[in-house]
């Protein structure tokens, strides 16, 4: 549901050169996943990734297939001195492929606002995040914020909140709700949006 107000569908992400690069990257993953994986490993061998660096997987999008997620798990295992972290709405996929044996350097947080919100169980250990209208709403809900560093989503206390982007028409569409609340309301109305592959 949050695809309808996703920051990656607006603003600079829609600039022709930026969009073309994301589309090329996605095509590369879809056309030749083994070569893409090899290229990522070669990139991560560069000295700038040495010494305990953190890499957020995706600035938008998600793990759109088992093969793609499995590739990232192999990459994480091959580069143990880099912390890989990400947000995901792919709850059932992570339950099957990641949770039984996650790489020690691979962290994730489940994001509300997806089709599988009903599978989330923060009371029994799921690390969760949601998008709030503002910092005051995060505090009022008793959640922790990732305002200081995005890494707090995977290393700090859970549940964690982040604020909506500042685009007025998107804020108006969501109103004073979190993405999770908005998704629940849309589900109740029988509405949903199609899944979308990641940009990289």
From TrEMBL:
Residue intervals of the Gene product domain: 2-183
Superkingdom to which the source organism belongs: Bacteria
Protein name: Gene product 88 domain-containing protein
Organism (species): Actinosynnema mirum (strain ATCC 29888 / DSM 43827 / JCM 3225 / NBRC 14064 / NCIMB 13271 / NRRL B-12336 / IMRU 3971 / 101)
């Amino acid at each position: 549901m949050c695809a309808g107000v996703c920051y990656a569908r607006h603003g600079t992400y829609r600039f022709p050169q930026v969009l073309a690069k994301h589309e090329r990257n996605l095509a590369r993953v879809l056309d030749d996943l083994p070569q893409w994986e090899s290229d990522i490993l070669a990139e991560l061998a560069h000295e700038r990734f040495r010494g305990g660096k953190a890499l957020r997987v995706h600035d938008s999008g998600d793990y759109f297939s088992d093969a793609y997620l499995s590739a990232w798990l192999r990459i994480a295992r091959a580069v143990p001195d880099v912390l890989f972290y990400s947000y995901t709405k792919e709850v059932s996929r992570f339950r099957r492929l990641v949770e039984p044996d996650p790489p020690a350097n691979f962290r994730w947080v489940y994001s509300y606002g997806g089709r599988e919100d009903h599978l989330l169980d923060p009371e029994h250990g799921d690390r969760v995040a949601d998008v709030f209208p503002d910092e005051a709403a995060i505090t009022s809900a008793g959640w922790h914020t990732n305002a200081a560093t995005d890494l707090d989503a995977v290393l700090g206390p859970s549940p964690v909140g982040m604020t909506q982007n500042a685009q007025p028409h998107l804020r108006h569409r969501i109103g004073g709700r979190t993405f999770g609340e908005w998704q629940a309301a849309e589900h109740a109305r029988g509405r949903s949006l199609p899944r979308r592959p990641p940009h990289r």
